[in-house]
Amino acid sequence: MQEFNLRIPGRDWDLLRKSCARSFRGRRDTENGAIGLLGKRMVGGRHRELLVAQIIWPEAGEVMAPPRRGLTFSSRYIRRAHLMVRKAGLAGLVTFHTHPLAKVEVDFSPYDDEQDPYLIENLQELWPGTLLSSVVLGETSQRGRLWTSPMEQLALTTLVSVGDRLQYLPLDGRPPEPAPDPSEIFDRAKALTGKGALAQLAKKTVAVVGASGTGSLVCELLARAGCKRILLIDHDVIKPINLNRILYATSEDAKHRRPKAEVLKRGIESLGLGCEVVSIVGTILDDAVLQRLNEADIVFGCVDKDYPRILLCKYAYQHFVPYIDIGAEIGGDNEGIVSTDARTNYVATGRWCLRCTGLVDPRRLALESMTGPERKRKIALGYSDDLLIKQPAVMDLNMRAASAGVMLLRHLFQPFLLEPLPVTLAENLVTYNMKAIASARARNEACNICRLNPYAGFGDCGEPVGLTSKVATALLEEDTGELS
Amino acid sequence: MVSTVQRFSVDIATAKSEIERLSASSVAVALVTEGSQPYALVRRVEAPSPPWDRTAYDILIAIPIAFDLGTPLDGFYLGLPYTFQEGEHNRVNGQVVKLANSEWKAVSWHYPDGKQFRLGVDNIESHIVHCRGFFLERGAVNARI
Q1: Which domain-ending residue is among A139, A170, A201?
Q2: Residues of chain A contacting B34 with CB distance shorter than 8 Å
Q3: Is residue A393 assigned to a domain?
Q4: Chain A residues near residue B75 by CB distance under 8 angstroms
Q5: Do A299 and A448 share a structural domain?
Q6: Tens digits of per-residue pLDDT, B80-111?
Q7: Residues A430, A330: one domain?
Q8: Mean of the pLDDT values across residues B17-38?
Q9: Are A153 and A207 in a shared domain?
Q10: Which of A141, A170, A199 is the last residue of a domain?
Q11: How far away is chain B from the Cα of A91, in angstroms, using its nearest Cα?
Q12: Is the same domain home to A137 and A245?
């Protein structure tokens, strides 16, 4: 069955469950609930996922819940939330409420079935096109649906709670079932994460942005971990200098300047592991390409520039999609090499963005976000020399970063690493050190990407994350590789 | 080709609104483009004459397309022609760009160490003030170095 998910920040889900917990204490079977604002992710003009952009907690008197009787949201509460939806251009409302007697399974009551169509009808009278989702919570289960009109409802399949962990909870009214056994070819990986992570990977689409050295390794590891589908994005073609670092690339590919994404698709699919690779030849700076990420459940960033990284961060917060950024850095001084860092960063709602962690250099970002001619003029002035360091392309090192990134993904599906997860995980082989950097060194509590993002959870209801094709092309034009 | 900005991307929305605010408050500044590169064109930045050959110059400030995502501004372009002490200023040493029917030369006028462009604090207005320093005593001192 096609998944139709409801995404919610982990902290909001925890708060919601906590605030509703009193419904299940057994002494008073009082219903509880709250209203949320909905963003949406679209694929091919159809709803793929809904996002709980914000929970609007009720004020005094806005929720009427007499013991042993159905809960009612006051019209003031609904109007207040709906006004926020209209003002922000969001998709609609989601109502959450408990059924205190639902200890194991839960379902909508006849009262819910009667009231929801009235509510959607009223909301759509005020604002045509408003969506209404309703989620009913049992003690250990939840059931969700979406009303697109008083006559039409769709079942939601999974609630995805995104934060320090990823939780996939069924919205079919039943408690989570044990994960099925993986196919025999993958079952030795159970030793690491159990079958839960494998079951998730077998259902997920993972986007990999960048099909060079690190990206090709990530794709290989994902395919061998049992990933169902990889969305592979890269605008570049194979050149002779790439042959030592892109898996499956041949001198023939370089001769014919074949797109990296297509070469890698050919290689990964030839493994016969059942992993489908969708190759997208284009730059992630281009909003038309970036929107393809709506098909993905998780994003890997294997790029060596700061502008794509920061746009992927923006996307991660606007769409509540986990983003794993990986890279390798070699540091040196006059004495020689002092560090070889294989680095992994996990970016998600509630966590710090790459600007706050200090990984994105504002001066470098400025230089990268100028058109080719302007960038050349800036460089000619000589004040950007320190920014023109080439990223290392050493497979041994890239492999360490790719490995840590995919291990982190397994952890997100089924935890086995110590928590809380660090902001940055970096392995320095020169000093035999694995550094877990816990603090964001450039943290900004007013950051418009990860803290006060005006479009957090808006999904496609927010402003475009990427650039127009014309601007994206202008940034790539006359890109001499000096910054790559 | 020069055009008035309609829509680049959301990443310069702040720059656009600040330029609108400044122009409404009598600072002669407009957003212009060369290809897809945005610039703030600032008219009539005052300069003492002498040593400058005019009492006001137009300048161009390149706006990074990722400006709203936290990028600093740096340097500017000076409208040509100009003379400083009847000659050239050693900081006007960059490449020339043609825009708005004029020629502009890049000026190597950076923030001093320890006084960098402060993200979240500085903006186009404060950068114009920084650029104006080039025409005043600090620029004159730099011309002698």
Answers
A1: A170
A2: 371, 373-374
A3: yes
A4: 378, 381, 383
A5: yes
A6: 999 998 888 988 888 999 987 899 999 999 88
A7: yes
A8: 91
A9: no
A10: A170
A11: 20
A12: no
pLDDT band with cut points at 50, 70 and 90 for residue A478: low
Q: Cβ A370–B37 below 8 Å, yes or no?
A: yes
> Tokens standing for B97?
């760009």
Reported as half-sphere exposure (CB side, CA atoms, 13 A), residue B88 has a value of 9
Q: Is A437 on the interface with B (CB under 8 A)?
A: no
pLDDT digits (tens, 9 = 90+) for A407-463: 999 999 888 889 899 999 999 888 898 889 999 999 999 999 999 999 999 999 999
Q: In what order do the strands lie in the sheet with A323-333?
A: A276-281, A229-234, A205-209, A298-301, A323-333, A336-347, A424-428, A433-437
Together in a domain, A226 and A165: no
Domain ranges in chain B?
A: 10-144
A448 in a domain, yes or no? yes
Domain count, chain A: 2
Q: Which amino acid is at A457?
A: G
Out of B35, B71, B110, whose CB is closest to A474?
Answer: B35
- Tell me the residue range of the domain where A248 lies: 184-476
Separation CA A455–CA A448 (nearest Å):
9
* Residue A176 in domain: no
Contact A9, A320 (CB under 8 A): yes
The token pair that represents A143 in the structure block? 């059931």
The answer to whether A467 contacts chain B (CB < 8 Å) is yes
Query: What is the C-alpha end-to-end distance of chain B, expressed in Å?
Result: 37
Is A61 in the same domain as A95? yes
Residues A157 and A296 in one domain: no
Q: Convert B59-95 to b/e letters by CB count within 10 Å (16 or more is b).
A: bbbbbbbbbbbbbbbbbbbbbeebebeeeebebbebe
Please tell me the least confidently modeled range out of A58-67, A96-105, A249-258: A58-67
A449 touches chain B (CB under 8 A): yes
User: What is each CA distance from B51 to A322, B140, B141, in whole angstroms?
Assistant: 58, 8, 12
User: What six digits make up the tokens of A354?
Assistant: 């790459």
Q: How far is CA A70 from CA A28, A31, A67, A110, A174, in A?
A: 13, 7, 8, 11, 21
Q: List the CATH number of the domain containing A445.
A: 3.40.50.720
Average pLDDT over residues B38-55: 92
Amino acid identity, residue A409?
L
Comparison of pLDDT for A394 and B43, the residue scoring more:
B43
User: What CATH number should be reported for the domain holding residue A12?
Assistant: 3.40.140.10
- Token readout for A276 is 């489908």
Tell me whether residues B66 and A367 touch, CB distance under 8 A.
no
Q: What's the rounded mean pLDDT across residues A236-258?
A: 95
Least confident of A59-73, A163-177, A250-264: A59-73
Determine the pLDDT at residue B145.
58
Peptide bond into B50 cis (omega under 30): yes
List Cβ neighbours of A329 (8 Å cut-off, separation of 6 or more): A339, A340, A341, A343, A391, A392
Gap from B48 CA to chain A (nearest CA, Å):
26
- Per-position b or e across A177-202, b if 16+ CB within 10 A of its CB: eebeebeeebeebbeebbbbbbbbbb
Quick one: how far is CA A109 from the chain centroid? 33
DSSP reduced 3-state for A289: helix
Same domain, A150 and A256: no
Residue type at A253 in one-letter notation = D
**What's the alpha-carbon Rg for chain A, to the nearest Å?**
24
